[in-house]
Amino acid sequence: MAIQRPKGTQDLLPEGSPKLSLDTQASAFTHIQDVARRVLERAGAQFIATPIFEDAELVKRGVGGSTDIVRKEMFTVTYFGDHGGFILRPEGTAGIVRAYLQAGLKQLPAPLKLWTHGPMFRAENVQKGRLRQFHQVDYEVLGAEGALVDAEAIALMVGVVRELGLKGVRVKLGSIGDPEDREAYNAYLRGLFTPHLERLSDDSKDRLERNPMRILDSKSAQDQDLIRELDVRPMLDSLGEAAAAHFAQVRAYLDDWGVAYDVDPSIVRGLDYYRRTAWELHHEGVGAKSALGGGGRYDGLAEQLGGPMVPGIGWAFGIERLLIALAAEGVALPAGDGPLLYLAAMEDAQVAFAAKVAQEARAAARVEFAYRPQKPGNAFRDAERRRARYAAVIGSDEQERGVLKLKHLGTGAQQDVALADLKTFLEQENA
Ligand code: AMP
């Protein structure tokens, strides 16, 4: 058997591929990127791209040494037989904050809004919507702390999925408070769980010492049973005054703009550098346990990476999960367009001429040509398969007179267009 792609990866395929589905359709994928670009750049975000491999230490500090991502799911990079201490990035935020610090982006006007998209890597158990290479669209705002930035970030995330045509999306909004609120909350959790230590999963026994809040995030059924039984008070009811005021302010903005959300006290982000606002975007088509995306404020991250204090907030959603949600709602995405014009030549003598006309016309539109002479019947059939709007077959007569006989493949109507007017004609058709 020919070599297969690695488990947990996908090929994105061109239009017309056999067995094409929405989640592997390259044009659907790029459509999501295009919509995200449009929505985010209109809001002032600038594109940034960072390497797909980074120092492992960046990810350990940026994502957290106690997370599954760092403990179990890192793809390490080996070269020349040496382990270089690099890993394939599992998410985008740490790399962007590293670049912000390294490139001195603090000098740019704040808040600095950045966005990117690209592949992320986690060695997870593969299932629907859970891949080892997946793709995220990522938005980050650096250098501003106000609740207005948080509310705008949430509204933009909702804006992208709305513009894609998705309807059944819910924002689950929470707050994880300030570090001192969390310290108090962690002390409360330690007091609550310690008498039941033996009932916690091994991972959570570990968490109880290092970071009890992460127990609430545990995927273990054993832990979740205990959490329910102990009727744990949520972090959201333990916010300090400043964090509570910030949360109320974020909600007031969203209410004012008509951005719907559900307050969800179960949203947890246990790492030290997270502050205040945290949320997830859910869709029933993707399943209750898997989010379309998530976001949060991370004012402590830059310091964690060895830089100064830089307030930040950001979100990411998975493109593959979005495609699952779009498919579940039956949203029709624009298929990749065909050429505006397909040109063929009757005989060998006109092939190079047709190719030249096509190349010049490409200044105005997408134009394809046949590499061998074609009879009109074959040329029109090929043009249709490529989903062209117009087709023309150039014979010696057309070449001499400098005129194309364009056939509209939808209506069958024919019209003569002088070569001198072709560019203008195509520009008008493209408008
Ligand atoms: P996270 O960085 O874990 O908050 O993930 C943000 C988003 O990325 C999730 O809501 C998913 O949409 C997507 N995502 C995370 N992990 C995977 C994965 N293994 N496969 C596909 N999408 C993923």
Automatic annotation (TrEMBL):
Family according to the record: Belongs to the class-II aminoacyl-tRNA synthetase family.
One Gene Ontology CC term in the entry: cytoplasm
Any Pfam family: tRNA-synt_His
Catalytically driven reaction(s): tRNA(His) + L-histidine + ATP = L-histidyl-tRNA(His) + AMP + diphosphate + H(+)
E.C. no: 6.1.1.21
GO molecular function, one term: histidine-tRNA ligase activity
Keyword annotations: Aminoacyl-tRNA synthetase, ATP-binding, Cytoplasm, Ligase, Nucleotide-binding, Protein biosynthesis
GO biological process, alphabetically ordered: histidyl-tRNA aminoacylation
Domain of life: Bacteria
Name assigned to this protein: Histidine--tRNA ligase
Residue ranges of domain Aminoacyl-transfer RNA synthetases class-II family profile in the record: 32-334
Location(s), subcellular: Cytoplasm
Species of origin: Deinococcus gobiensis (strain DSM 21396 / JCM 16679 / CGMCC 1.7299 / I-0)
Oligomer and partners: Homodimer.
Chain residues that bind L-histidine: 91-93, 122, 136, 140, 269, 273-274
Main location: cytoplasm
Record has Signal as a keyword: no
Gene3D superfamilies: Anticodon-binding domain, Bira Bifunctional Protein, Domain 2
